[in-house]
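FORM 12-B: Structure-to-Sequence Request
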């Protein structure tokens, strides 16, 4: 699952960038993807990644 998930996100972000998405849009996609990944890990009982620092 993990490789397919990363590949899908990477491909989607690549298409968005090609079509003119700005950095803010791409960061938003990455944040949603990481939240989904954390939820997947939590559901599987695995530890998630450490919280990020604001700013």
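FORM 12-B RESPONSE
SEQUENCE OUT:
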């Amino acid at each position: 699952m993990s490789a397919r998930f990363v590949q899908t996100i990477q491909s989607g972000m690549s298409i968005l960038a090609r079509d003119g998405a700005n950095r803010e849009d791409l960061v938003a996609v990455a944040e949603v993807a990481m939240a989904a990944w954390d939820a997947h890990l939590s559901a599987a009982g695995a530890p998630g990644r450490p919280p990020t620092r604001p700013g």
